[in-house]
Amino acid sequence: MPGDEVAAIADALALLLGAAAVNVTWEAAGSQQPPTSFGQPGTSPAHGLASSLTATGGGRCVTGTLSATGGTITIDARFADEGAPEGGGAPVTTADMPPLTRALAAAMDQADVAVLLIDGHARLMFANAAARAILDRGGGLRRVGAHIAAARPTDTLRLHAAIARVVDGASDKEPPVAITRPDRRPLLVAIVASGIACTHPAECAAIVHVVDPEQAPQVSIEPTCRLYGLSPVEARLASLLADGISLAGAAKAMHVRPQTARSYLKQIFLKTDTHRQAELVWLLLRSAVRTPQPNNAA
User: Which of 62, 91, 180, 209 places its Cα 20 to 30 Å from the Cα of 52?
Assistant: First the structure.
């Protein structure tokens, strides 16, 4: 079994078991090579070797051995004593930031794309409002200690392996990772290097973008309607059309006759210098102001 696979298993097991540290050893049957051993010390990822499980301190230890095709896997896990503090934890809050950083964080909270910042140990440093909403729902991604994890262990392995490659500098940008969800389309997670020359592991090393294909961004076309001088009733019709509603459906929603809606639409065409409904909708959406989703969005 390749070393990176053993490392990924150690990383995922620490999260899934809630252990303070995990060491995974792979010993191939009949091989003269020394066993491959990777550890997950504290809450840091399993990128590096752990000299021993006891190096992370006291607590309860559990050891198990599994027979696998071609060899044996030994898992050593250490669990913290009751009430003992562990490394990592929740991402940094805005109260912990200097004024300029708080302002930048507030700006990120207004974005409708979920953004997370990961440090050199692959720990979660910051999550904007859209990302926190996804993590709090827990349907695909969730927060486990200082890390993010998927609901399915196999997705967690792929996600952490992609993060490790970016954080370690092996890849500037990984292909998106699909995080499966029950009865919903998968989340798409893209991990890119921060582009910052990190001199300390606690600095931002990677940026994680999470896209929910079923959560369309909210847009506001009100500024565009004002720009083109649309009347309130014309702006209402334009908004309905921009939401994908047909002209007949918009007329019904506005409680007007279809021919009245067509008359309004002609006026909108004149004011916006457009000639077809598709052209109008394209203009409205391209000129729209994107707004963040509410935190309680389903």
Answer: 91
